[in-house]
Design a protein that fits this description.
Layout (H helix, E strand, L loop, with lengths): L1 E3 L7 E2 L10 E4 L6 H9 L9 E3 L5 E3 L6 E2 L23 E6 L9 H18 L8 E3 L16 H5 L10 H5 L6 H5 L29 E3 L4 E4 L9 E5 L4 E3 L2 E8 L2 E6 L5 E3 L8 H4 L2
Parallel strand pairs: 1-5, 3-7, 3-8, 4-7
Antiparallel strand pairs: 2-6, 4-5, 9-12, 10-11, 13-14, 14-15
This protein binds zinc ion.
Length: 285
């Protein structure tokens, strides 16, 4: 049983860009009390959130809808997670669950079983296989953190998932499963008009959100088909002052001294020099 709490607009993004959807669950520890964690997510200046938090007594609170992007694992430092998508903010394709406690705490059975039940429900909803490639520790994305602490083994959670909730291996691997991205590895085609998704929120400024690449076009800019250069066919013209979430960047043709180009999920490109973030390496730091 989960209680909906919600959080301010500045602490999450509505939706998930580029047709991305949840493909993994990231396990966190608050490093503090349930109340302390909640106050961070309810504070509009923190730019931090998680989809859920689980107390040591097994209480479950939800702050962000699973369809939306929570700011819980956006900084990538020496990642060890095999399924990480290079250049794509992990927040866009993960669900984050915080847990009350300190890194060295032993997790109570009530907390473990509540978390496992939730993970099982998430797996069933999104067709996420319940294994240690798809249910991961935060530090597998950000090695500079100990999160979720030193006690927890992912197996401690997985062995407690109710068997009625665990998707079978056949379901998880089937191309007809609910998750086309995870099942086939191929992204569905999108029309050129939707190739870069405009959003209406401002770029988040907090440290927890600093790797979300949100850019604003300073002038009309051509979206190029499949290659970061001016030889490539124009598939759309993005108007000046559009706010865009882009999935990654590449080095391409040098234009006016700038060789950075932003890519959408279909592999189409716009020149970074036409945006308010001409150097994406600053944003990705
Ligand atoms: Zn964490």
């Amino acid at each position: 049983m989960t209680t909906w709490i919600g959080c301010p607009d500045s602490n999450f993004h509505k939706g998930r860009p580029f047709g991305l959807r949840p493909e993994a669950v990231v396990v966190h520890i608050i490093d503090g009390s349930f109340v302390a964690g909640e106050s961070v997510f309810r504070d509009p200046t923190t730019h931090k959130s998680a989809h859920y938090a689980i107390s040591r007594s097994g209480e479950s609170h939800q702050f962000v809808d699973e369809k939306d992007t929570a700011f819980h694992a956006g900084i990538v430092v020496n990642p060890t997670w095999a399924l990480l998508k290079p250049g794509v903010n992990p927040n866009f394709y993960t669900i984050g669950i915080e847990h009350e406690g300190r890194p060295d705490d032993v997790w109570p059975e009530a907390q473990l079983s509540a978390s496992a039940t939730l993970i099982g429900q998430i797996g069933a909803r999104w067709g996420i296989p319940l294994d240690d490639s798809h249910v991961i520790r935060h530090r597998q994305i950000r090695a500079s953190k100990t999160c979720p602490g030193n006690w927890l083994q992912i197996s401690e959670l997985l062995q407690r998932v109710p068997t009625t909730l665990a998707p079978s291996a056949a379901t998880a691997a089937s191309p007809s499963a609910a998750s086309p991205v995870a099942a086939s590895g191929a992204l569905p085609p999108a029309s050129p008009v939707n190739a870069v998704s405009p959003i209406t929120t401002q770029a988040p400024a907090g440290p927890g959100a600093s790797t979300i690449i949100v850019v604003r076009t300073l002038k009309n800019v051509n979206l190029r088909l499949g290659a970061p250069n001016k030889e490539a066919q124009i598939v759309a013209v993005i108007p000046a002052q559009s706010v865009l979430v882009v999935s990654r960047f590449d080095i391409g043709e040098r234009v006016d001294g700038n060789a950075y180009w932003y890519a959408d999920r279909n592999g189409n490109y716009l020149w970074a020099g036409a945006t308010d973030a001409p150097d994406p390496t600053v944003l990705a730091a």
